[in-house]
Write a structure and sequence with these properties.
By secondary structure, the chain is of the alpha/beta class. It has 2 domains: about 190 residues, 3-Layer(aba) Sandwich (Rossmann fold), CATH 3.40.50; about 180 residues, Glycogen Phosphorylase B (Rossmann fold, 3-Layer(aba) Sandwich). About 40% of the residues lie in helices and about 15% in strands. The chain has 13 helices and 13 strands. The strands form 2 sheets. Strands 3-2-1-4-5-6-7 form a 7-stranded parallel sheet, with helices on both faces. A 6-stranded parallel sheet has the order 10-9-8-11-12-13, sandwiched between helices. The longest helix is centred in the N-terminal third of the chain and has 17 residues. It binds ligand GMT. The site of ligand GMT has 21 residues, from helix 1 and helix 4. This is N-acetyl-alpha-D-glucosaminyl L-malate synthase BshA. InterPro entries: Glyco_trans_1, Glyco_trans_4-like_N, Glycosyltransferase_grp1, Thiol_BshA. One of its GO terms (molecular function) is glycosyltransferase activity.
C-alpha cells in the first residue's frame, strides 16, 4: 500500500514508534511517505519505497504563532495527490489528527477519499490533550478519525474516561525489532563507564516533569549505599540541569554521568544492569521495552501502561509512583546477587521478545486494509 505517516521527528517515543513502523512497512514492500517538519531521528536510509517530505512553515512577522497545522494539512493534500497515497496514519493526536482531518476534507472536495488512522500515544491524551484549551479540538479530531488506535489498554481506558469518544479504540501495543538484538554481549564496552565491581544503572528520557527525574536520583542514592554503582542519565530536557545540581547537592556527582541525547541507546543499554523508570504517568514506556530487549531489568512505577510491559517480579519490579524506598529496595535485591541479576536479565529479554514487530506489523496492515476498504 501507499502509506503517509505523520509524526514528531524527535527522540520522543511516538516519533520512534512511527519511524520504526514506517521502516518495517517499507521492508515489507509498502511505499511509505513520512510527512513532518524534519527528517525523523531514527530514519537513516531513504530509498525507493521510503520517502520524506518536509513541512515548511515560512516565518511571517504578522504571526505571533506560525500556523504549522495549516502548512501540514496543505503538504498532506499535495503529497497524497502527487503520490497516490491510499492511507494516512497520524501518530500523536495533537495537532496531527486535526491537520489530517482538514487534509481529508480538502481532498474530499476533489473527489479523493483518504482514510485516516490516528494512533494515541500518551501525553496527547493524559497531559496536553485533556487541557481545556485543546480538549474540544482533540475530542473532535479523534472522533473524525476513521480508525483510532492506542498503544496500551491503560491509555485506551484513560481516553474513554477523559473524552467523549464515539469510536472504537483498538489497542495495538508498541513493538521492537528483535532481529536487531542478536548481539554479542561481550562486545559491550562497560569498562568505559564503570569499574568491574560497579553495577550500571541507566535512565533514558526527555527529562520532562512527568518522568519524575528526582526519583531516579533518590533511588540511585539509596542503591549506591548498598551496592557499588554508577548511574547513566541519557537524554535532554527541562529537568536536566536541576538533576545535575541535585546530584552535586547529594554528593553523588562523581557517580552520575549525564550523556545527553544519543543515537546509540542500545550500546548504552547493553552494558546496563538495571533501568529506572519512576514516571508519574506513562502510557506504555517504550524506553523500558528497549531496556528489556537489551537484557536490562526494569524498576518502574506502576502507572498507566507500564504494567503491560514490565512484569512485576519477572522482568523487574513495579512500585507506586513516588515510593523511592520500595524501588531502591527492589533494585538492591536484584543487583546484590549475580545469580538473581542474571535471571532477571534473561526474563527481561523474554518478556520484551513478546513485543516483536513480526507480531505487531500484521495488525497495522490489517488496520490499513480495513480503513482502505471503508472508503
Ligand atoms: O515519553 C514521552 O514523554 C514522549 C512521548 C511521545 O509522545 O513521544 O511518549 C509517549 O509515547 C510513547 C510511545 O508510544 C510511550 O511509550 C510513552 O509511554 C508515552 N509517554 C507518556 O505517556 C508520558
Amino acid at each position: 500500500m501507499k502509506i503517509a505517516i505523520v509524526c514528531y521527528p524527535t527522540f520522543g517515543g511516538s516519533g520512534v514508534v512511527a519511524t520504526e513502523l514506517g521502516i518495517a512497512l517499507a521492508e515489507r514492500g509498502h511505499e511509505v511517505h513520512f510527512v513532518t517538519y524534519k527528517q525523523p531521528v531514527r530514519l537513516e536510509l531513504l530509498g525507493n519505497n521510503i520517502h520524506f517530505h518536509e513541512v515548511h512553515v515560512p516565518e511571517y512577522p504578522l504571526f505571533h504563532y506560525q500556523p504549522y497545522e495549516l502548512a501540514l494539512s496543505s503538504k498532506l493534500v499535495d503529497t497524497i495527490k502527487l503520490y497516490g497515497i491510499e492511507v494516512l496514519h497520524v501518530h500523536y493526536a495533537i495537532p496531527h489528527a486535526y491537520a489530517g482531518y482538514m487534509a481529508k476534507k480538502m481532498l474530499q472536495e476533489e473527489g479523493i477519499f483518504i482514510p485516516m488512522i490516528t494512533t494515541l500515544h500518551g501525553t496527547d491524551i493524559t497531559l496536553v490533550g485533556k487541557h481545556p484549551f485543546y480538549k474540544p479540538a482533540v475530542n473532535f479530531s479523534i472522533n473524525k478519525s476513521d480508525i483510532v488506535t492506542s498503544v496500551s489498554e491503560a491509555l485506551k481506558q484513560r481516553t474513554l474516561e477523559l473524552f467523549n469518544i464515539e469510536k472504537d479504540i483498538e489497542v495495538i501495543p508498541n513493538f521492537i525489532d528483535t532481529s536487531k538484538y542478536k548481539l554479542d554481549y561481550t562486545d559491550c564496552q562497560r569498562s568505559l563507564m564503570a569499574n568491574e565491581e560497579e553495577k550500571i544503572i541507566t535512565h533514558v528520557s526527555n527529562f520532562r516533569k512527568v518522568k519524575n527525574i528526582p526519583d531516579v536520583i533518590y533511588t540511585f542514592l539509596k542503591v549506591q549505599q548498598e551496592v557499588p554503582a554508577k548511574l547513566i542519565m541519557v537524554g535532554e530536557g527541562p529537568e536536566k540541569e536541576y538533576a545535575e545540581q541535585l546530584c552535586d547537592d547529594l554528593g553523588i556527582k562523581e557517580k552520575v554521568v549525564f550523556l545527553g541525547n544519543s543515537n546509540e541507546i542500545d550500546r548504552i543499554l547493553c552494558f546496563s544492569d538495571l533501568f529506572l523508570l519512576p514516571s508519574k504517568s506513562e502510557s506504555f514506556g517504550l524506553a523500558a521495552l528497549e531496556a528489556m530487549i537489551n537484557r536490562t531489568p526494569v524498576i518502574s512505577s506502576n502507572t498507566g501502561g507500564i504494567p503491560e510491559v514490565n512484569k512485576n517480579g519477572i522482568s523487574g519490579f513495579l512500585a507506586d509512583v513516588g515510593d523511592v524506598e520500595e524501588m531502591a529496595s527492589k533494585a538492591i535485591s536484584i543487583l546484590k546477587n549475580d545469580v538473581v541479576l542474571e535471571k532477571f536479565k534473561e526474563n527481561a529479554f523474554k518478556v520484551a521478545s513478546k513485543f516483536d514487530i513480526v507480531n505487531i506489523l500484521p495488525i497495522y496492515e490489517e488496520v490499513y486494509e480495513k480503513a482502505y476498504k471503508s472508503r
